[in-house]
Design brief:
110 residues, alpha/beta, 5-stranded mixed β-sheet, 36% helix, globular
Length: 110
């Protein structure tokens, strides 16, 4: 399976555009990697797979920070909009620490 490292806002826009362009609202498979992954830890990488595209996007959250979630695609949606949307079925792997880490970094916008 191929992968692409997403370490610029432009590549985040490309990912959002790919998700928006799927005719039927897709499944979005998500996994996070980090150090002490929780509200007290650090998210380093967010892995996203959007079938039927077999490419895994490795989003460098450590480098991009909140910009990874705030950059919009051509349809005006951000990655955060997609994560919040009821139109996309999100599949997380061992979501306990992942959801805690995303919540503390994105929902509680300082």
């Amino acid at each position: 399976m191929a992968s692409i490292i997403v370490d610029t806002v432009e590549l985040v826009h490309d990912l959002v555009e790919q998700i928006e362009s799927v005719v039927l609202k897709p499944l979005v498979f998500i996994d996070l990697e980090g150090v002490i992954l929780s509200r007290d830890g650090v998210i380093a990488i967010m892995k996203i797979l959007v079938p039927p595209n077999p490419v895994v996007r490795l989003i460098n959250i450590y480098t991009l920070g909140k910009e990874a979630f705030d950059g919009s695609g051509p349809g005006g949606q951000t990655l955060w909009d997609i994560l919040e949307s009821k139109d996309y079925l999100k599949v997380f792997f061992d979501v306990r620490d992942d959801s805690d880490a995303i919540y503390i970094r994105c929902i509680r916008r300082d």
